[in-house]
Amino acid sequence: MISEIAWADGRCVRFDEVSLSPATHGLSYATSVFDGIRTYGGRIFRCDDHIARLRRSAELFGHTVHYSNADLADACRELVRANDLADAYIKCLVFYDDTDVSFKAQGSSSKVVLFALPFPSNSAAEQYRLSTATWRRAPASCHPYQAKTSSTYALSYLSHRGRADGYDDVLFLSTADAVCESSGSNVFFVEGDALFTPTAELALDGITRRVIIDELCPRLKLSVTERDIAYDEIGSFDAAFLCGTAIEIMGISGIDEIRYAKSAVVDAIATEYRHLTSGRSAIRQ
C-alpha cells in the first residue's frame, strides 16, 4: 500500500492530493523518467547513486530538475521520516507538465514527485522461473537503455503480461539471440567460481549489478566477466540469478526448458548483499 505522504516539487503533501492532468506529456509520449530506491531499517541504500542516475536519465530527455542532488536526497529522507517507514521502496519520478500537448514539449516544465511504500527484504527467498520474451530488444542505436524511462518498461509490461503460464518473469533476447536482461532485472550466470553477465549495451547497467561486479565479487573472490552471452549457451552454466534494487538477489530455477540447481555461490552473494544492506558489511552502504 502506498504511504499517505508524498513529496511533490519541494514539499510534503498527502499522496491523494498529487494531481495529474490527462494532458501530461509523459502519458502520450513516454518522456517520464524514474528511479527506485530501497530503505533498510530506515537507512536509504545507495541514495546518492540512485539520485545521480535519475538526473542522468532526466538530462537525456531534456528535463530541467530545479533541485540539487543533495536536495533530492534530503527529500527521500524527509519522505521516509514523514511516513515512519523502515523497509521501504521510494519511487522518484520526473515528468513534463501539460503545457504542450504535442510531442515537442515546448514551454513545458519538469515536475518531480516522490512517493514510497513498505517493501520488506526477501533476497533469495525463492527462485524464479523465466520464459523467453516474445518481444526482442532493439539495437542500442534505437533506444536509450541507460536511462530509466517509461518507454523501456512499456515493453517489459507487454512481455511480462504475455509470459507463459507457470513462469515468474521473462528473459529478453536481442535480435541476434543474445541474452539482455529480464523484464526489470539484470541477469548473471554461474560456472564454478566464475560469474558471467551480458554487457550493458542492451540492458540497464544497474546499481545492484555494479555492486556485485565491483564490490561483492572481489570480496568473495569470485571472477566476473561481462560479455555477450548467446541464448544457445545458457544451458551450459551451473546456475543463474537475477539482481536489482527491488528484487535484490533472486536465484533462477530455470529458463524455458533449461533447469538450474540451487547454488552455494548465489547463496553467498545473497548473504553478502544482505550484510551490506543491513549495515553489517565493511563495504560502504
What's the layout of helices and strands?
Layout (H helix, E strand, L loop, with lengths): L4 E4 L2 E4 L10 H5 L3 E8 L2 E2 L2 H14 L8 H14 L5 E9 L13 E9 L8 E6 L17 H12 L7 E5 L5 E4 L3 E6 L2 E4 L9 H14 L2 E4 L12 E6 L3 E8 L2 E2 L4 H14 L8
Parallel strand pairs: 7-8, 7-14, 11-12
Antiparallel strand pairs: 1-2, 1-6, 3-4, 3-5, 5-6, 8-9, 10-11, 10-13, 13-14, 14-15
Rg is 19 Å
- Indicate the percent of residues in helices: 25-40%
Number of strands: 15
Mean pLDDT: 94
Coarse morphology: globular
The topology string of helices and strands comes to EEHEEHHEEEHEEEEHEEEEH
Low-confidence stretches: none
Distance between the termini: 26 Å
* Count of alpha and pi helical runs: 6
Oligomer: single chain
3D architecture notes:
This protein is of the alpha+beta class and 285 residues long. The protein has 6 helices and 15 strands. It has helices at 25-29, 47-60, 69-82, 150-161, 207-220, 264-277, and strands at residues 5-8, 11-14, 33-40, 43-44, 88-96, 110-118, 127-132, 169-173, 179-182, 186-191, 194-197, 223-226, 239-244, 248-255, 258-259. The strands form 2 sheets. Strands 7, 8, 9, 10, 11, 12, 13, 14 and 15 form a 9-stranded mixed sheet that branches. Strands 2-1-6-5-3-4 form a 6-stranded antiparallel sheet. α4 links the parallel β7 (127-132) and β8. α2 (47-60) crosses α3 and α5 crosses α6. The longest helix is centred in the N-terminal third of the chain and has 14 residues, at 47-60. The chain is globular. The protein starts with a strand and ends in an 8-residue tail after the last helix. The mean pLDDT is 94.
